[in-house]
Amino acid sequence: MRLLLGTLFALVVGALVGLGGTYLALTRGAAFGALRIGAWTAWPRTGTQDADPYARASIARSGRLPIALGDGLTFMAKTDDAGRRLDGRCDVAVSGVTPAARFWTLTLYNPNGELVANALHRYDFTSQEIVRRADGSFVIVVAPRANPGNWLPTSGVERYMLALRFYDTAVGVATKEGREIPMPSITTRRCP
Amino acid sequence: MIRLLLLLVGGVLLGGIVHLATIIVLPRTASQDAYSRLTPIAPVNTVTALPGPTPAKAIMPLMDPAFAMSVCRYDLSQGPMKLSVPVGLAYTSVSFYNDHDIAYYAINDRSAGRHAIELDLMTPEQHSEMPEDENITAADLLVVESPTITGLIAIRALAPERGQMPMAQHAVDSAKCQRTKTPEESN
Lengths: 192, 187
Known about the structure:
heterodimer; A: 4-stranded mixed β-sheet; 10 strands; about 30% strand; B: 4-stranded mixed β-sheet; 6 helices; 9 strands; about 30% helix; globular
């Protein structure tokens, strides 16, 4: 009886730890070889055949088609530079310069990876659409209310994430963390 | 007490095995991955234009709304394929995925360096069977080897400004992907 109970206990612990770990790994986006710059994270190897089992499982579960590394690289941000969750009720500024690339796009998604509806039908900016300062740097304001300049509407959703994609760029597998790659900063300016 | 601790350690070890096993098996069993989502709407060996993502409806999550996209779901069991993509105004790329959505090759308009991206897709076996003497070995022919028999080609064109979306859409719509005619068939 004790043996049976003991085995059952071990099996239950095993199932909980195993499935819980898998669930966490897939929802948190765990994969090896992450490239973190400020609040931005990219997984260059996810777009190659060297994708590790975690990346493969995450791709399969999410249903997305990752951008091939020879095509471009996706950086995702869920927080601002201070580590604060991106909140659609606040004014958030994405500003600075980007690494060299032929084109880049900045897109706002809800946590499920869907676009967020707004009256302007504005879901993204491309590098050609934005208004820049004289020195080539830019500010994109991600906010619920209209802003002058480059305004990306949030529609007041509680949580969102930003995807910054570089196309035809040298940033990739060989890029080391901590090396100087200019990435735009994300700052929460005003929160109601 | 020690017995309980041992059981706990055993359980955690077992959990590690369960975890690794589920991670490895998951891609094989996933029914909602990109390839499965595209299977019902994209016929084999032909180019299918995908509607752009909207907040209400998107075929896949995390699609880039600045791009027009079409796909060709291929099956090389009958022979190699030929792909030709006209190059759009700004940026056009062709990415190759195996049937588990892992990218194995990508090329863009600049690396193709011409008015159209043209290439042949085949398995390594079909590539080695290719006759060497004929003009197919001409240097301008780009051959891509697919690690799997079936897979996916994603053809994407960027609309740098929203008004250019129809042109980008037109570029990806006029891409062609078809089975290469064997010498016997073309005679």
